[in-house]
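Q: Hi! First time doing this. I have a protein sequence and I read that you can turn it into a structure. Is that right? Here it is:
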Amino acid sequence: MSAGRAHGVVEIQLGRGVLHAGIRDALETLAVHAATTLAAARLYAKIEEQSRSDALTGLANRRRLDEDLLSEGALASRGHRSLALLIIDIDRFKTYNDAFGHPAGDALLTSVAELLTESLRPSDTAYRYGGEEFVVLARDTGLTAASALAERLRTTIAGRLRSQRITISIGAAAVPENTATVVDLVEQADSALYAAKRAGRNRVVAATPTPTPPVQELGRIRRFGGTAS
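A: Yes, that's right. Below is the predicted 3D structure, encoded as C-alpha cells:
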C-alpha cells in the first residue's frame, strides 16, 4: 500500500518456522518501499505517454511523429522498405471555428481524429500535427497505395461529416518513390498538400515520383509551420 492505494501483492513462502514479529515488520517495510517504487514507475510511464499524445484528440503528437520518423527511416534504410506519409488539412477550418466557436472547432478536430483512427490499418499511425493538420504514417506502403488510402480517408470524412459540410485536403509522399530521406518525405507531402489546396481543396495530391539513391537514415527532423486553410 502507498498513499492509501494498493499497488501490488507480495507472496512470501516460509521454509520452516513461524513468521516472527521482526521478520513481519521487515517485510511490511519492504512492501511499502515496493509500493512506492511501483507508484512512481506508473506515474512516470503515464507522464511519458502524455508527453507523446495530443491532449485534445488523444492521437500521437508532433514529438511522437519525430521519434517515429527517426526509427522508421532507419528501418526503411536497413530493410529497403516502403514508407508513406500523408499530411491532412481540414478545409476552411478557421471559417468553421469563427462561425461556430472554439468548442465546436475542438469537437470537429476530435471527430476527424476518430474517423482517421477507425479507417487506418493497425500498422498505420495517425498524429495531430498542429492546428487543423494531421499526419498519417503508413508503413510498408508505396505511393500508389498511399494515394488510395488518402482518397479513402477523404471520402470517409466527407461522407460522415456531410451535415457539417466538412472536407479535407491531403498531400501524399513515399519513400523511395519521392525521396531518399524522411526529412524530404515531410517536405514532399507538405508541398503536395499546398498543391491540393491551390487546386480547390477537397482532394488528394501525390508528390511527383523522382529517381532517388538508396534510403538514408534521418539525422534531424525539421519543423514546419501550419498550412493555410
